[in-house]
């Protein structure tokens, strides 16, 4: 079984940005329907509609029930798709009266009228992905299957909603049979939680990851291309572990278990996020990873929210709108361009030149370092922590991210922006679990396999070296340009080159022209020198010349 923790918040958020291809085009007021138009206005209206067709918005149709509390159902689906940059149309199968306490009533929409809604949307709008939620009767499932046969879409995501988070039944046994017999064979993915998986398989008991794998395999045999069994309800784990099965391989997806009462609508949201990512063109594994990351981040940011008086509250799908980085115009906590000039400290070198860590960091920032790492191999923990706290202040006030080498404990204690780890340090997924989704994690990689693992583990960037021989790190293999190129080409993450880089050779590294090679990380060329600020400034101007000559 492969183990795939989630990609980092920044990587996931980057995917949430609507691409240029997803830019909505609005009708001008003069072309609004029902307004009589001159021929030139008509021509303009036609061209607006035609160009909108050329540039479609990723489109998810949700077929689900309305939740009056807006935490789950249709309302959650629309919010989730909007947050991920997909348009979401809706076919309502039932109207529920519910709140944070439970479900007080269900009013099913007549099957014929569900069919009418489906025809309205599918016959007119270019729907990419259909996502299903509450399907209250076998008749509704049949009507949906007929509509999908008549109007095929690119993908079908089936969230087999049977019981609400409050424990109320939302669809009965005859519906289950129709799911199994008719809908699953049309589905690209089915996303049951352990309770739903158990019900689908005749109330089998599911207690372990191995049980979840067996359940995924059994559901797979009913016809879907992928099965995601969600383990959020499983006890005894600090991680939320889901199992994805594609008919051949089981992939264990780890996420953080966020302690909060606000979990109402997580299943609907996850399935809608998968649908939105598929509509944007993602592969299934990426769609599921991005969806999990979104739900995890939303729960994390909403964990203390109080809406309603019951035991299960809704969460905020649009948490990003409130983040300071969003308000400053950027959705990302980590900007890969920050890797441009990466200053990595060395206490031995700074001591030799009579400088404190704090003065060394100040000077590097003054010279234009864009990110700093404290790599203090010999410092006592207490002394290191004090210096790190002072550096955090300096870096915060300059807007330069500060990472700690190896020491997750120190990073947590000083509230650094992140941690850099190597292949023999704590695994990146464990670092992510400890630091949470909002911090930056860098991983040293020398091979494509390590780069792939770093991405799976939720790293934000890769440090690749030694590009040249170095005396700063003992017994460090030299990869040369070819090694660096191989890792960069294999990496889905931004890369910073390291090892023996200085003002004399930095230009040649950047001249490799590798799109994800974002900069150079340097120790001795800055800190084993008398004038740190001047050396940094000089290196920066060399890198800048190279960057401008390439653009
Ligand atoms: C940016 C950057 N890249 C690579 C390393 C090396 O990390 P690691 O392999 O863990 O070795 P140590 O630095 O811990 O000796 C790095 N620190 N920074
Ligand atoms: C810390 C470190 N990591 C490396 C790697 O190859 O992963 S090379 C290295 C030392 C870099 O120091 P200098 O800039 O003085 O050569
Ligand atoms: Mg290390």
TrEMBL record:
<dbReference type="GO" id="GO:0005524">
    <property type="term" value="F:ATP binding"/>
</dbReference>
<dbReference type="InterPro" id="IPR022998">
    <property type="entry name" value="ThiamineP_synth_TenI"/>
</dbReference>
<keyword id="KW-0418">Kinase</keyword>
<comment type="pathway">
    <text>Cofactor biosynthesis; thiamine diphosphate biosynthesis; thiamine phosphate from 4-amino-2-methyl-5-diphosphomethylpyrimidine and 4-methyl-5-(2-phosphoethyl)-thiazole: step 1/1.</text>
</comment>
<keyword id="KW-0547">Nucleotide-binding</keyword>
<dbReference type="Pfam" id="PF08543">
    <property type="entry name" value="Phos_pyr_kin"/>
</dbReference>
<keyword id="KW-0067">ATP-binding</keyword>
<keyword id="KW-0934">Plastid</keyword>
<dbReference type="InterPro" id="IPR034291">
    <property type="entry name" value="TMP_synthase"/>
</dbReference>
<keyword id="KW-0808">Transferase</keyword>
<dbReference type="Pfam" id="PF02581">
    <property type="entry name" value="TMP-TENI"/>
</dbReference>
<feature type="domain" description="Pyridoxamine kinase/Phosphomethylpyrimidine kinase">
    <location>
        <begin position="67"/>
        <end position="311"/>
    </location>
</feature>
<dbReference type="GO" id="GO:0046872">
    <property type="term" value="F:metal ion binding"/>
</dbReference>
<keyword id="KW-0460">Magnesium</keyword>
<dbReference type="GO" id="GO:0008972">
    <property type="term" value="F:phosphomethylpyrimidine kinase activity"/>
</dbReference>
<keyword id="KW-0809">Transit peptide</keyword>
<dbReference type="GO" id="GO:0008902">
    <property type="term" value="F:hydroxymethylpyrimidine kinase activity"/>
</dbReference>
<feature type="domain" description="Thiamine phosphate synthase/TenI">
    <location>
        <begin position="341"/>
        <end position="526"/>
    </location>
</feature>
<keyword id="KW-0479">Metal-binding</keyword>
<keyword id="KW-0784">Thiamine biosynthesis</keyword>
<protein>
    <submittedName>
        <fullName>Phosphomethylpyrimidine kinase/thiamin-phosphate pyrophosphorylase</fullName>
    </submittedName>
</protein>
<dbReference type="InterPro" id="IPR004399">
    <property type="entry name" value="HMP/HMP-P_kinase_dom"/>
</dbReference>
<dbReference type="InterPro" id="IPR013749">
    <property type="entry name" value="PM/HMP-P_kinase-1"/>
</dbReference>
<keyword id="KW-0511">Multifunctional enzyme</keyword>
<comment type="pathway">
    <text>Cofactor biosynthesis; thiamine diphosphate biosynthesis; 4-amino-2-methyl-5-diphosphomethylpyrimidine from 5-amino-1-(5-phospho-D-ribosyl)imidazole: step 2/3.</text>
</comment>
<dbReference type="GO" id="GO:0009228">
    <property type="term" value="P:thiamine biosynthetic process"/>
</dbReference>
<dbReference type="InterPro" id="IPR036206">
    <property type="entry name" value="ThiamineP_synth_sf"/>
</dbReference>
<keyword id="KW-0150">Chloroplast</keyword>
<dbReference type="InterPro" id="IPR029056">
    <property type="entry name" value="Ribokinase-like"/>
</dbReference>
<comment type="function">
    <text>Essential for thiamine biosynthesis. Bifunctional enzyme that catalyzes the phosphorylation of hydroxymethylpyrimidine phosphate (HMP-P) to HMP-PP and condenses 4-methyl-5-(beta-hydroxyethyl)thiazole monophosphate (THZ-P) and 2-methyl-4-amino-5-hydroxymethyl pyrimidine pyrophosphate (HMP-PP) to form thiamine monophosphate (TMP).</text>
</comment>
<dbReference type="GO" id="GO:0004789">
    <property type="term" value="F:thiamine-phosphate diphosphorylase activity"/>
</dbReference>
<comment type="similarity">
    <text>Belongs to the thiamine-phosphate synthase family.</text>
</comment>
<dbReference type="InterPro" id="IPR013785">
    <property type="entry name" value="Aldolase_TIM"/>
</dbReference>
<dbReference type="GO" id="GO:0009229">
    <property type="term" value="P:thiamine diphosphate biosynthetic process"/>
</dbReference>
<dbReference type="GO" id="GO:0009507">
    <property type="term" value="C:chloroplast"/>
</dbReference>
